[in-house]
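quick one: iron/sulfur cluster bound model?
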Amino acid sequence: MLKGISMKQNQRYSVLFEPVKIGPVVTKNRFYQVPHCCGMGHLRPQAHAAMRGVKAKGGWGVVSTEEAEIHPSSDLAPYVEQRIWDKKDIPALRLMTEAVHEHGALAAIELTHSGHNAINLYSRIPTMSPVDYPINFLYPKQARRMSKKDIADFRRWHRNAALNAKEAGFDIVYVYAGHGMSLAQQFILPNMNTRSDEYGGSLENRIRLTRELLEETVDAIGDSCGVAFRFAVDEMKGKDGMQFREEGGAVVELLAEHPDLWDVNVSDWSNDSQTSRFEPNEGYQLPYVEFVKGLTSKPVVGVGRITSPDLMASLIKKGVLDLIGAARPSIADPYLPNKIKTGKIDQIKECIGCNICVSSDNFSVPIRCTQNPTMGEEWRRGWDPETIKPKKTDQHVLVVGSGPAGLECSLQLARRGYQVVLAEAKKELGGRVIFEANLKGLSAWKRVVDNRVYEIQQKNNIEIYKDSELTATHINELGIDNIFLATGASWRLDGIGRSTRKPIKGLDKIKVLSPEEAVKNTTNLKPPIIVYDDEQGYLAGVIADHLSAAGHKIIFLTPASVVSPWTESTLEQTRVQRSLLNQGVEIICNKSIQEADSKGIEAKCVFTGKRTTIDCKTIIMVTERIPNYSLFDKLIKQEEALGGSSSKNIQLIGDAESPGLIADSIYSGHLAAENFETPEIEIERAMYMREMPSLK
Ligand code: ADP
Ligand code: SF4
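yep, here:
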């Protein structure tokens, strides 16, 4: 038995460490990292291999790629996904399979032809679909109906890609019919397939192509690779889409024994990867997929932000799933399986369901994660969430402020072995997270603080001083030469934001509140109340949602053309706007505040300049934050006065350096801790690391 684990605990979770046969291959345990995007793909193969390798090292039995384009007629540019167009892609993909195999895990690849979900911006090949159909993106171009020859070509490309995948070392090869993002699914869905030949019409006809793909893939590589079928059993559109109790279930019945593995979920991506703000329940997809095992003898993997080992074990024991699927929980904690195995359950970094990981794919940059700042930095910086380089010297360090930046910085410095003093002005540790996690829908965000505070409490080299607002004099008295200032940022009240770069006139005649003030003391909220969003991130939308749910009548005013446009990148925008509308929030878009007086405000149309007056007694101002760097400035002035005779190391981190997401603050704190006492040349080397195109 492994050291430190009780016999009882070992037995409780032992079921999770049983091998599972997937066609001709066997996974060592039931932890399955399902395909997920990462913004690395074919452009950054070394970064991709290193990231997947860390997951294999962390104990995942199967580690998959993201969707892999099988042909130039399925070109996902500007998104950076995987590519297996031809044999030229094999060496890059082999980097990943080797990194995964090194740790005894199986490597899986999700072969994809995106049909009308690709614009083909790079290849400029006309896009294909079962029928003439608009492209899924805002691009005035349509996909063309596939001829019989196109279907035959597509089957040939898929077969070739499967053979190339085998040559690249993959153990599991996917046929993909999910997220509305693949041709196979587009053929299955009646709304997307109104063909009148043998590939359209009845369900039997609409699954014909998928059946052919499954049979041909098994025939091509089934001797040595497992064939997985990723299928969205429900579109979550009620009667307007595929439902698991009707055709979704019938597809499973008809193809039950065709694949070696069923990987089942819901469609589209925003339903599959729901955020905790709108779907707080762990395992939220289980009610949709639990029927699958009753219809097939093949193993079944399912997802839904499953992070608790007890739920995992019970799903296996009750026969709901054979494999615990995870995308986000494996991103937040690549070592989740090993932590369960070694009894370190209290050290699991639980995904908070914020979808910052998803946003990075939407921006075509390497993946990042709020909980796990090392995600995406495995190759460039050599980071690993479980190891950090040891301290260089016996220096002491002071961290001022315990928001995400200060907590992460102190924790990582302590892990390196330094003696750390952490001072926080408030009675509670956590900074902005404490405020935000108390807002409607964001309670899971508190894990960012809880996980870190728990780890800090296990250390004996961090002294914490709460309720201690430090001044420059206090800091001088402490006599610590290394000072990280994580003092955060404050919402400004003068109206300066994205669209207005001068203070708004007349605000002294009306009640103007910051988000914190508005939520803290709701007796201040005299109606009519305007939430003014000129930041255009997520917070104004959350504040409006929170206050209107608490019974306040809210007017949401923004120069943007939708509510909280940033939340498009986290797949939440539709839900955000729907929630406000359902709660009766009045939404006024495309208008900026020009002036205020005691009766209300004058708003200007961002297009025509036309002015309108809106009655208002209270404005909740969400426009921009001012970094809290006055303490930093004072300390630097002191240093300058000493004329270079002092050797203090004073650094701003997190929002105090540049206000951003909680993920940015965590990253900033981690980076500062990693870079402490690191030679400049090494810091620069990591900064300039990038994957260069071959000039051959
Ligand atoms: P970040 O996202 O950068 O971590 P936060 O705003 O979440 O920023 O956290 C900043 C924290 O710093 C807050 O909890 C605040 O109370 C604390 N703080 C600010 N100034 C001081 C100070 N002078 N002494 C101690 N704590 C401070
Ligand atoms: Fe989870 Fe957020 Fe990390 Fe994504 S970014 S894995 S949703 S914590």
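The longest strand covers residues 226-234.
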